[in-house]
């Protein structure tokens, strides 16, 4: 049986480097998609799934740091190798803080990049997506968007369902108010807080002392299912 090739996104505004990298990785058997900058990469990330991203830092409009930060805020944890001419330690540290998996300065040897890609892909464990989240006996089915207390269906508004679904998909991880507002119909941070309060009344054993929908100070909220 033929193995499905890993899909890699190469993002670089330098036409020569982008094309050379794309061709080199393609010759190694990878499925490679190329983007000429952060804006095009954002559009591709909304349409396609990638196993790894090779991301240039110094780009106009949306640079690599900005794109990486936006990805992590939205809960996109695709492995990222930063590719840049800036070799200062401060830049390397900044990239790693934002969630980069590796960092390689320009100019670089294509073989070294390929070895780093292979090493990261070996570490990536493919996990089955979580289908249900249990909270104090209640079960939320993510695909069906249903919350049940035993056999009883708990009624949720569309806004509450969207919020709970986004939190459930990122269970255990903080999700910013901005991401919750933009990813649901809540629209503004204050509306998010109001709907979180309503959700707690329906889910928490004690809404005043929430154990499942937790506030993460300075960031937003985190959903903690039963252990």
The succession of helices and strands, N to C, reads EHEHEHEHEHEEEEHEHHEE
Number of helices: 8
Terminal Cα span? 38 Å
> Which spans of ≥5 residues are poorly predicted at pLDDT below 50?
none
Let me know the number of strands.
12
What percentage of residues falls in helices of 4 or more residues? 25-40%
Largest sheet: 5 strands, parallel
Mean pLDDT equals 87
CATH topology of the largest domain: Rossmann fold
Structural class: alpha/beta
Percent strand equals 15-25%
Q: What number of domains?
A: 2
Shape: elongated
The whole-angstrom Rg is: 20 Å
Second-tier CATH architecture of the largest domain: 3-Layer(aba) Sandwich
Structural summary, described in words:
- The chain has helices spanning 15-27, 38-47, 64-73, 89-97, 110-123, 158-169, 177-182, 189-203, and strands at residues 7-11, 31-35, 52-56, 80-84, 102-105, 132-135, 138-141, 146-149, 152-154, 175-176, 213-216, 220-223.
- It has 227 residues and is of the alpha/beta class.
- It has two domains: 7-123, Response regulator (Rossmann fold); 132-223, Arc Repressor Mutant, subunit A, CATH 1.10.10.
């Amino acid at each position: 049986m033929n193995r499905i090739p890993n899909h890699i996104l190469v993002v670089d505004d330098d036409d020569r480097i982008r094309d050379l990298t794309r061709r080199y990785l393609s010759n190694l058997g990878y499925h490679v998609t190329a983007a000429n900058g952060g804006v095009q990469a954002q559009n591709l990330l909304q349409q396609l799934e990638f196993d790894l991203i090779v991301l240039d830092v110094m780009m106009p409009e949306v640079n690599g740091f900005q794109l990486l930060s936006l990805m992590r805020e939205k809960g996109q944890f695709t492995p990222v190798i930063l590719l840049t001419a800036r070799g200062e330690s401060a830049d390397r540290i900044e990239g790693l803080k934002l969630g980069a998996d590796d960092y390689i300065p320009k100019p670089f040897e294509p073989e070294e990049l390929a070895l780093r890609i292979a090493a990261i892909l070996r570490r990536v464990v493919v996990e089955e997506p979580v289908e249900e989240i249990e909270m104090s006996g209640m079960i939320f089915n993510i695909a069906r968007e249903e919350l049940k207390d035993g056999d009883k269906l708990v009624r949720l508004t569309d806004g509450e369902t969207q919020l709970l679904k986004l939190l459930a998909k990122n269970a255990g991880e903080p999700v910013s108010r901005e991401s919750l507002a933009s990813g649901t119909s809540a629209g503004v941070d204050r509306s998010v807080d109001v709907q979180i309060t309503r959700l707690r009344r329906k889910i928490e054993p004690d809404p005043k002392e929430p154990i499942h929908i937790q506030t993460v100070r300075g960031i937003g909220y985190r959903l903690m299912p039963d252990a």
